[in-house]
Amino acid sequence: MLEALQVFLFDYTFRTVALGAAALGAVAGALGCFAVLRRQSLLGDAIAHAALPGIGLAFLLTGSRATPVLVLGAALAGWIGTLAVMGIVRGARLPEDTALGIVLSVFFGFGLVILTFVQRLPLASQAGLETFLWGQAATLMAADVQMIIIVGAGALALLALFWKEFKVLSFDGAFAASLGMPVRRVEFLLTSLLVVAIVLGLQTVGVVLMSALVVAPAAAARQWVDSLGLMVLLAAALGALAGVVGVGFSSAGSGIPTGPVIVLVASAIVGISLLAAPGRGLLAELVRQRRVGRRIRADAVLADLYALAMQHEDRRYGHPVATLRTMRHGEVGIERSLETLAEQGWARELKPGSWGLTPEGEKRARTRFLDQDAEHP
Amino acid sequence: MSGLDFEIQLLAVVVSVACALPGVFLVLRRMALLSDAISHSILLGIVLAFFWVQDLNSPILILAAAATGLLMVAMVEALHATRRVKEDAAIALVFPALFSLAVLLISRYAGNVHLDVDAVLLGEIAFAPFRRLEVAGHDLGPRSLWTMGGILALNLLFMLAFYKELKVSTFDAGLAAAMGFSPVLIQYAFMGLVSVTAVGAFDAVGSILVVALMIAPPASARLLTDRLPLMIGLSALLAAISAISGFWIARGLDASIAGSMATAAGLVFLLSMLLAPDRGVVASLLRRRRQKVSFARLMLTIHLLNHENSPAAPEENRLGHLSVHLRWSPEFARQVADRAERDGLLDRGEGDRLHLTPLGREAARHFMAR
Amino acid sequence: MAGPEAAASVPGGGPAIEVNDLTVAYREQPVLWDIDLEVRPGALTAIVGPNGAGKTTLIQSILGLVRPAAGRIRILDRPIRDARGEVAYVPQRGTVDWDFPTSVLDVVLMGTYREVGWFRRPGRAERIRAVAALEKVGMEAYQDRQIRQLSGGQQQRVFLARALVQEARIYLMDEPFQGVDARTETAIVEVLRELRDRGDTVVAVHHALQTVPEYFDDVVILNVRRIASGPVSEVFTEENLRVAYGGRVPFLHAVSDAPVADLPES
Cα dihedral sign for A143, A117, B210, B272? Predict the structure, then answer.
């Protein structure tokens, strides 16, 4: 453990790689928010897969395996993939999911053809293009990290610059157009930034799984916050976290591809967020539902007590718990409901096992149930 | 052509057709991307079952894989039902997680076994003929040919047996429920079928290219016909064509067969998209050009009709005025007016004034009432 | 903002919106046929017609969101691209995702984005105006609420506030009364009358025929082509509605009982 910490803090190579993973996680997380909000989560998958032939062709045409060259090829191919999706939807009038499926799989298949083709070249034994399939953070060089940081910062700067345009476009495109905004061009820019975010991560996370790093941090962040600005910041932070932790795990065991590890970490973050986030979280929802259920059950017992009190001369007469239980058809948890009523000061245990309404309880019952009756005769 | 080549092609055709059949309904039900999600998720089932039985040929693997496919569908639906994420995001969250887990397990614990990470993506159709099925010393051909043939038969049987139910639940889920069969049950049975098919095909072409085989041929067929039985037949045919041409592309380039099959399926789709007789891009462009003038001619008669009796008629119903109000170029306006005059819809008066003929008036009324 | 006399003035005293020979088609399928229309300034105008009549398309064409096959549209005697600042749009409430992570005030501030311009953010002055717009629709107490917590009527009022903050002279609304509670309906009508009384023009797609005479001054009856348009008292007749709705007129009796509506078309 201590050793791991030492590596984490002082190992130069690891620090470089972790920095790169954090940067690309942040960029993917931030821009992923717009993909998720615009229901384009699966477009990211198509872009990532479509990038593969671009990587192969960039290598074949230039003979260079410098990361910027390959990333440029990936970006171009990813863009062509996006255009192909739009072209199929508009030109062939097929549903979008079909278009995405075709582009994703056919571009990827074509990419594999090119990869096997590349592998037959003599110099290709060192090409190492396969790392783009599953991602291998260990192959990140200082120069690669620099590129990720510079390009990523550029993308985020554009995001900040066109913030309100992106926001209104994502929320209400027709209204944005009515303001005279060049919606097509703004959309083009936003999608381009998504392409950039995706291709920056391909070397580390791989084409197969990169889309998960775009979607997961955004989906997780959405559970915690309710404003777009906070969502983007939190998604960036969570994306960076997934990147760093994923790289840490993957470098702990040699030869483990980084992509799957990062995706699992990001998925765990989503799981935790869905469960534990205050407000939107499922646990919070459960607590809320139970509280509502408890109140409804307590109200029912309050109504019973009121009905019983009406039948007696002495309004403060105590009624045994057993009677109340019979009135609720033997329902368990009558005691719990009575406690709730006692906490509110609406009922009191007059003698052991015998309960009656307090004056406040009677007033409450009258306003609550009689008024309701008046509304729905 | 060697026997080996023949066996590979036969297998490629069987795999492609087996994938294309359920693919038809995936495309029609707008669930194309569930094939992607399923084909990724099944890997986890395969891996876990393999750890258990330690045999890559065990039928348990297929069952476990199909079960994970269904599990994934159920997880996506459950996640969507929480209303915390949209459906597309739910899909994009669930299957990468299951797939990543599977890949990690493979790279960690099964590195030396037959199951390796590259095979997951590429499939091994080229090696399939080397794994033979032998019964009592007789060679019955490649083992995967039998598996896939069985799956193809299963798909055919299912679609024949439940054709009506599939059709109705695809086009009208409410009607299906009213007719007494549960769309949910059909849905899950169908997803199970897709999962089983994906497992079988996975061996041959890997988990991503399965999607190309399932989606591209039915999408191409969709562009060629509006009739379901014909669409199913065409999907199978185009799948077979993609498979065989993919094989020969791979031969020619000395490249991955599975990748080439996906590429060929993509090319077939591209050709359909461009050249389909009615819905194709070329046909649409030609039709639009043809219709532009005839549509404009109609527009002109309706315009004349609407203004015939208004006080502004002498002003409105002049050739020169059309470019102002209808925003037509003067040449286009003249072209349209010529055409309408030739068709007997209008007469030209002095000062370029346009009058509807009784026929033109009739036509305009008819089209406006639609 | 300008006073009423300034707001009402249109160069030459012409119409607020002028539509000439507008034809819109989607894939050679006409949605609107040769529409001629003049919208009176300083009036509340309803657009009515059956489903698929092209009501939304007409609004969107006026806004320049749809490319017409032919025709000409002028707003305050200008083409739409020169009149953007004078026009506010209230889309149908159902067209947006109300789970979007944003607050009520934020949505209203979107109405200021055009004048704020590129690369800048709305500031204090815009915020004050946005709150004032929320006050007009009775929603100022909700300004920090998340929009997903709003009821349908509240959502509609937020959309109206977003249009008010644009301080336009022409308001184009798509079904502003769709699925809202009675309180919201009254509140919206009040705001619309206030707008009219200071000289602004409101055009709204409207579904409930029985409230047309009560809420609106003018009406456009549409079904792919323009059946009739003009003051409600003149053109909102059973005969015109029958032409538009093909005999099956909802609430026809209510309409024919209304004293204003049984004049024959002149």
Answer: positive
